[in-house]
Amino acid sequence: MMPPAKTIRRLLSNVSILSCRAKFTSSCTQGRSTCDISKATSSCRFVHSARVTRIYPRGQRPMAAEPLIESSSSSSSSWANRLFLPATCAAAAVATWYVNVVSNEHNAAAMYSTIPMEQEDETDDTDISVDWMNARVTPFGRVRPMRGPRSPESILLLSDIDGTLTGAKQGLEEFNSHWLKDEAPQGSYLVYNTARPRGPGPTKSGYCELVEKHHNDNTLHFVVPDALIVGEGTEIYWFDDLEEATPRIDEEWDNMLQHCWDRQKVAALLDPHDERIWLPELQINDDNKYRYAITVGSEERAMRLTELFQDTLDSNTYTVAYVPMTWMPGNFIITVLPRIAGKSSAARYVARKLGFMHESVLWAGDSENDMPMLDTNMRGILVSNATPGILDASSDHVSTGVVHVASSGHAHGVLEGLQRFRYLHL
Fold first, then answer.
1. CA–centroid distance for 286 within its chain
2. 332 conformational bin, left if phi > 0, alpha if psi -120 to 50, beta if neither
3. What average pLDDT is seen over the chain?
4. I want to staple 411 with a disulfide (CB 3.0 to 4.6 A). Which of 56, 150, 159, 172 is the partner?
5. What DSSP string runs through 97-115?
6. Would you tell me the crossing angle of helices 5-12 and 79-102 to the nearest 10 degrees?
7. Which alpha helices (DSSP H) does 142-287 contain, by range?
8. Cα–Cα separations (whole angstroms), residue 235 to 53, 143, 191, 252
């Protein structure tokens, strides 16, 4: 039976654990002799790598300028070494046993390198996944608790919102609870990747308006993400200030798009063909900086205009695409973006900026505007209510296991896919 964690901490409280490359070293009184026991026992190894631990009596670490002198096994070894080494070896062995048991689910090396032993009792039992339902509401969601340190179990989840996270109140609440209790504490990042503008704006269709509407209706609640990708991958915002939940625009991304976007040129080409099916009384493009869109009433017309716009615009600078308006069936929206933008390009940019390899990145979506994510080689989740278009396009990815089609819809499906990939791959 495993002793309580506090018992182990008391046992370890008389030693300080530091990283080194090769040897177990003890600094004893007066003589400060050093004994190399790295070959004598493997129980002094503390982490699963080529690193070995140094364990010193508290307050007796050798000065940085002092050379470490190798001592022989002769009788010249002091009585302090003969008494101290077995005790410290025993402590190291117990520490190693404890880490081996716990490290199946926690990165022990990171834990002991970031938490000083004297402060462990103050931080170990802290639950950083607070009651989010009672957290302060901001225009961008409920303020999330502080994320834990990065670890090998950390992931990056880039999730679409409409039809993916939304659609079922209980599902979103369960997703939020899982994220705050299980994912955030181990250093995972949550990013919303949506075609909506950031808002607030004249069309009242932005992410901010979505949060406000559902909060006022008490229907859905969103946790403030670590980052927000809006406008179909044209704008990126970071939430660095947990207290204020105030987004900071990614200036590097913004500058790149600014130099390859001519809004007047694009508008002059698209506006004469706009049927203004959605929000005819408003300028739907006023909410977006680097995305321009028009609406038409048939797929045949959408296809023909898309080809016309792409032939007219520089294909090395702009990309043109059309997708069904899922909220107004039978109608289509044609969008023009800077070629370097888009959901997939922004996802790669965010993953690279956060230092995640694609094996540790997941995306979730439900419709055709998520199809560019299929080209990223990132693992994907399609909820059961996904549209036929993206289901057909993802068939090869599903057969190879890169994309999982959930048996549940909306946020329940995202949670299902997240847990499946954690079990099988991460």
1. 30
2. beta
3. 74
4. 172
5. HHHHHHTTTS-HHHHHHHS
6. 150
7. 169-178, 207-217, 251-258, 263-270
8. 46, 21, 13, 11
**Residue 39 CA neighbour count, 13 Å, CB half:** 2
Name the pairing type of β-strands 189-193 and 141-142: unpaired
Cis preceding linkage at 200, omega within 30: yes
For residue 199, what are its two tokens? 């808002």
Name the residue with tokens 């990056």.
156
Helix extents (H) in 165-292? 169-178, 207-217, 251-258, 263-270
Q: Cα–Cα–Cα angle for 390, 382, 307, nearest 5°?
A: 20
Q: How many residues in total does the chain contain? A: 426
For 237, how many CA atoms within 13 A lie in the half-sphere containing its CB? Answer: 21
List 229's β-bridge partners, or say none.
193, 236
pLDDT for the residue 117: 29
205 close to 199: Cβ distance less than 8 angstroms: yes
Contact 190, 159 (CB under 8 A): yes
**What's the CA gap between 235 and 254, in Å, rounded?**
7
The pTM score is 0.69
The H or E element spanning position 53 is: strand 52-57
pLDDT single digits (tens) 264-293: 999 999 999 999 998 776 777 888 999 999
Nearest to 404 by CA among 388, 389, 393, 420: 420
Contact yes or no for 173/221 (Cβ under 8 A): yes
151/182 Cα distance (integer angstroms)? 13
Q: What gap in Å lies between CA 244 and CA 279, rounded to an integer? A: 33
* Predicted local confidence at residue 36, as pLDDT: 35
Can you say how many angstroms the Cα of residue 139 is from the centroid of all Cα atoms in its chain?
21
Tens-digit pLDDT profile for residues 82-141: 444 444 444 444 444 443 433 333 333 332 222 232 233 333 333 444 455 566 667 788
CA–CA gap between residue 119 and residue 71 (Å, rounded): 34
Distances (CA, A) of 193 to 216, 266, 370: 23, 24, 9
CA–CA dist 175, 139 (Å, integer) = 20
Residues 206 and 200: beta-carbon distance below 8 Å: yes
